[in-house]
């Protein structure tokens, strides 16, 4: 059983053999945070407390199993909001103790990588990607809190190559949506509006940092959108209210293209650096069709082409299937946690 409470989704899932989804229950708090335009940690924590027991019960019920069928309890204990993580961690420790099952600590970002590969028919979960694809994989994880590139050779040891030095890609989507008065969460709103816009209408900056850097920076593009809407000195009137739908759509499409360009170029740079044969894509922003298509094009354009494995859309945003699926590998390797397990904000 996997448990996930790192941000604003309370989730539990039962997964067999690392790949067969028996149940997946996600209680989203989107409506709770919508009016604030972002996640309010204290509200998230309280909502997790209310939901965690019903969500776990429902995951067992939907899977048609009882506690006796569960082999281990896995929980995302890092990174995330500490006040949110602690709810899942406490629930998992309690179940581990009372049900007498091993406890497994899962890194939320490593679990996002797992969501890209766990149900690949060509890739039995007990085989490392590196062995199967005869080369390492580069994994791009793009979420609301993180934007990271990993050298990925097996589920147990992804190696971090680069990460955002300021805003995460999803955070930039959320903030730009707020500037454009689009509903929260910003990613799906921007994607939707961008469909009617011209991605080449505005040339927003693409921050690539140093020539060899695999780090990301998205605060510049967010500020560029703000200046575009409110003037360079921010002293002009906020023009968004008087803009037509076409203008908003052009800004959304141009912003999305600029972010996607950076993500794709950096992934290519990382793939070249580690001589990757495969690209893995996961995290909330991985649900974005423009990003999925652009990465596919990049992979196809290389000789030899790279193989792209992308998380199923329902497993891009936070869920507990990815937690339980990664736990399978830790279970096999007997990598268990004990009751001193604590939540950790970073990771
Ligand atoms: O992985 P996730 O559910 O939570 C974190 O771990 O942060 O990612 C949530 C993020 C939000 O910033 C949301 O706006 C973004 O993923 N997102 C998208 C799309 N769907 C969700 N961004 C761009 N396009 C989407 N379709
Ligand atoms: Zn996430």
Largest sheet: 5 strands, mixed
Helix vs. strand class: alpha/beta
Q: Largest sheet, order of strands side by side?
A: 3-2-1-4-5
Please give the share of residues in helix.
40-55%
Q: What is the H-and-E element order?
A: EEEHHEHEHHEEEHHHHEHEH
Strand content: 15-25%
How far is it from the N-terminal to the C-terminal residue, by CA? 22 Å
- Residue-averaged pLDDT, rounded? 95
Shape: globular
- Residue ranges: pLDDT <50 for 5 or more in a row? none
How many β-strand stretches? 10
Number of helices: 11
Cofactors and ligands: 5'-O-[(R)-(carboxyoxy)(hydroxy)phosphoryl]adenosine, zinc ion
Radius of gyration: 20 Å
Brief rundown of the structure:
With 347 residues, the protein is of the alpha/beta class. The chain is built from 11 helices and 10 strands.
List the helices and strands and how they pair.
Blueprint: E1 2-4, E2 9-16, E3 20-28, H1 30-34, H2 41-63, E4 73-78, H3 82-99, E5 103-107, H4 108-117, H5 129-133, E6 137-142, E7 147-152, E8 159-163, H6 169-179, H7 186-194, H8 219-230, H9 245-274, E9 278-282, H10 289-301, E10 307-310, H11 321-332
Parallel strand pairs: 1-4, 4-5, 6-9, 9-10
Antiparallel strand pairs: 1-2, 2-3, 6-7, 7-8
The protein binds 5'-O-[(R)-(carboxyoxy)(hydroxy)phosphoryl]adenosine and zinc ion.
Question: What can you tell me about this protein's structure?
Answer:
The chain has eleven helices and ten strands. By secondary structure, the protein is an alpha/beta fold. The model has no long low-confidence stretch (mean pLDDT 95). It has helices at 30-34, 41-63, 82-99, 108-117, 129-133, 169-179, 186-194, 219-230, 245-274, 289-301, 321-332, and strands at residues 2-4, 9-16, 20-28, 73-78, 103-107, 137-142, 147-152, 159-163, 278-282, 307-310. α3 links the parallel β4 (73-78) and β5. The protein binds 5'-O-[(R)-(carboxyoxy)(hydroxy)phosphoryl]adenosine and zinc ion (ZN). Residues 7, 143-145, 170, 173-174, 185-188, 191, 283-285, 287-288, 317-318 line the site of 5'-O-[(R)-(carboxyoxy)(hydroxy)phosphoryl]adenosine. Zinc ion is lined by residues 108, 112, 143, 283-284, 318.
């Amino acid at each position: 059983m996997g448990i996930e409470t790192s941000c604003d989704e309370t989730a539990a899932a039962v997964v067999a053999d690392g790949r067969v989804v028996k149940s997946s229950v996600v209680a989203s708090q989107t409506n709770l945070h919508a009016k604030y335009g972002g996640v309010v940690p204290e509200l998230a924590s309280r909502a997790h407390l209310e939901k965690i027991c019903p969500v776990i019960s429902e995951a067992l019920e939907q899977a048609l199993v009882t506690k006796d069928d569960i082999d281990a309890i896995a929980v995302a204990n890092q990174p995330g909001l500490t006040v949110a993580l602690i709810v899942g961690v406490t629930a998992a420790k309690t179940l581990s103790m009372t049900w007498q099952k091993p406890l497994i600590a899962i890194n939320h970002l490593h679990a996002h990588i797992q969501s890209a590969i766990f149900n690949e028919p060509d890739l039995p979960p007990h085989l490392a990607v590196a062995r199967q694809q005869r080369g390492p994989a580069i994994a791009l994880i793009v979420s609301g809190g993180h934007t990271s590139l990993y050298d990925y050779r097996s589920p147990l040891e992804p190696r971090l190559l680069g990460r955002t030095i300021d805003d995460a890609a999803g955070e930039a989507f959320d903030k730009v949506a707020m500037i454009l008065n689009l509903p929260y969460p910003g990613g799906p709103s921007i994607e939707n509006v961008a469909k009617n816009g011209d991605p080449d209408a505005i040339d927003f900056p693409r921050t690539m940092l140093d020539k060899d850097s695999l780090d990301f920076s998205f605060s510049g593009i967010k500020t560029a959108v703000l200046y575009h809407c409110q003037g360079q000195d921010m002293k002009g009137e906020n023009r968004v209210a008087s803009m037509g739908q076409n203008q908003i759509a052009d800004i959304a499409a141009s912003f999305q293209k600029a972010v996607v360009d950076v993500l794709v170029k950096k992934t290519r740079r990382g793939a070249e650096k580690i001589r990757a044969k495969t690209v893995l894509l996961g995290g909330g922003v991985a649900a974005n069709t423009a990003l999925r298509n652009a990465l596919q094009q990049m992979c196809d354009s290389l000789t030899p082409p790279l193989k792209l494995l992308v998380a199923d859309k329902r497993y891009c945003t936070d869920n507990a299937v990815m937690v339980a699926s990664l736990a399978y590998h830790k279970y096999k390797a007997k990598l268990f946690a004990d009751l001193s397990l604590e939540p950790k904000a970073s990771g």
